[in-house]
Amino acid sequence: MKYLYFILFNTILLMHPVAYAEEIKVEYKSYGTLMSTNTQTGEVIIADKDNGKKLYQNSCRYCHKTDGKKSLVGALNLQGISTRRSDVWLSDWLKSPVAFAKVNAEAKKLLDENPILIMPSLPEMQETQKRLDIMEYMKTL
Known about the structure:
- The protein has 7 helices and 3 strands; from the N terminus they run αβββαααααα.
- By secondary structure, it is mainly α.
- The protein has one domain: Cytochrome c-like domain (Cytochrome Bc1 Complex, Chain D, domain 2).
- A 3-stranded antiparallel beta sheet has the order 1-2-3, with helices on one face.
- β1 and β2 form a beta hairpin.
- α4 crosses α7.
- It is globular.
- The N and C termini lie far apart (47 Å).
């Protein structure tokens, strides 16, 4: 029986390497705020919308619009993005769009629609806290 669990767990890892690359449980909503728990340390990470706004202003606004119009560089409009995508989907996309596109058909389609401008894996999005913060801010768009 232990062997069967091992095979199932490893199969899940291979099917979705982005979401399981960290020792972080999948993000969930508690009282309307995004949270995440580190499975090794038990540390709870709570999203900070105000910090997310700062991150957006410093990293995202140059390519993405929030007024319903497409940007000049062709990047998606982020207005209402949190209603179009799940929290887990957004987290995986923000962490590494190219890696996520290898395991998710919708992510691949987005990259294929604009092959000239591919969203980069931003250094600040490698940190769970910052990803949650920006996702929390995006809920206000």
